[in-house]
Write a structure and sequence with these properties.
The protein is mostly helical. The chain contains four helices and no strands.
Length: 79
């Protein structure tokens, strides 16, 4: 149980660190969420297609890195 709590603390710190590397500030993160929720065709007509792609890619990479960290910890320590 103690090891699990250590991993939770380490993961939260790692998630925050990855968030800071990917997004830099809260506005950049909210823009990424806004672009994820906006259909691509709307961004295309607004002329924001490149910004939309980049914001969605950053958010997707961040989620993928966070999930891969948790999965790798599971396979290394709990399996």
């Amino acid at each position: 149980m103690g090891l699990l709590l250590v991993f939770i603390v380490v993961d939260v710190l790692a998630f925050w660190g990855l968030w800071y590397v990917m997004f830099k500030d809260w506005d950049d993160f909210t823009d990424s969420i806004r672009y994820i929720l906006t259909p691509d065709i709307v961004s295309l007509f607004r002329g924001e297609a490149v910004e939309d792609f980049w914001a969605e890619m950053k958010a997707g990479i961040w989620v993928l890195l966070c999930l891969s960290l948790v999965v790798s910890e599971y396979f290394l320590f709990f399996r």
